[in-house]
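Good day; I would like, with your permission, to put a structural problem before you. A protein sequence and the structure tokens that stand for its backbone fold form the material at issue. I would ask you to consider whether the tokens describe a fold that such a sequence might reasonably adopt. I set the record out below, with my sincere thanks for your time.
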Amino acid sequence: MPRTLFIAFLLALLAGAFITYRVNQGAAVQAYTVQQLPLEQWVVASGQVRYQAIARIGTELTGRVAQRHAHEGDVVTAGQPLLVLHQEELQAQYEQAKTALQQLANLRYPQALETLAEAKLVLAQTEREAARRAELAARGVLPKEQSEQAQRQLTSHRSALQQAQLQVQALAAGGDEEQLLQQRLQTAKANLGKTEIRAPFAGRIQTRHVEAGDLVQPGKVLFELARTDGLEVVAAVDEKYMAPLAEGQPVTMVADAWPQKNIAGIVSFIAPTVDDSSGTVDVHVKLAEEANFLRLGMTVSVNVLTATKDAALVVPKDFLRQQGSQALVYKAIDGKAQPVVVEQGLSSATQVELATGVAQGDVLLLPSGISAAGQKIKPVLEGGN
């Protein structure tokens, strides 16, 4: 055999032996040893800074603005005047109602008492006259018609007395007339008070839509007032991740404008409906600490801690393969890759808890390095794992 052919034959034998050796040894596959580690589950979303309450302030009266005391950006206290309407007409109505009440006590009621006393005297005289004429008519001294006329006068004066008695009752203290006038006075006073529009709570004026001299009426928004202590963050969370969310969960936030500052909060409210256009649910976060650097409309990264475990069987998500509705991992067993169905528990951005199917110390194989179940493998543990 020529020398060159012999060398070629020898190389072929060596190559075949190497391939056989590699096949018998199995393919090198990245591996991971299952460990018990602490695990935190977070839901991450983007949110915006908003105010919890914005009052749209208007007027209950139609009138013209006399004075405006507030501008955009002003910080106001509860009860602070924002604007005043002209009061002349309503002030006159109030004074008229007050005067009518005074006249009732000082003039109309005393007059009614005098009228009642006079009615009693007249009735007494009429009764005596009617009795005298009736006696005379019975004796034939006086025509019967005069006796009948006296009886008619008696009936009329009795009716007048009843009217006077009813008038005294109506005008007496606590009577119908006084109650009516008191209501009219209170209404006039209330309307007069409505001419001065005040801040319902402490806050900051966001917008104003009125100037001195404007004619305003009910239904028109004059100011928008936001609570200065009512900042919150509203995050739009994809509906796929809403299941573990609950009110009261702790939140860590970072504003895009202040990446070095962490802001603590808690989930205060979860919207009961999903936005059908975006597929998201609004999650409201109440600030747990003062953050004066936040501004309305700022973008904030929201991280909600939904669950924690001090010890869980944790693997990187790359070691999990999804097949239909099942999740499985590949275990290294006797030098071969064996698929095992697992049940997932908590998960983070990069790790997942395996609730069933594995035990601490099991060696799992990276699915991308496995071509078929039962394949011979050589696990390669990285970083001493």
Notes: The longest helix spans residues 88-139. The chain has three domains: 28-51+230-385, 54-86+195-227, 88-193.
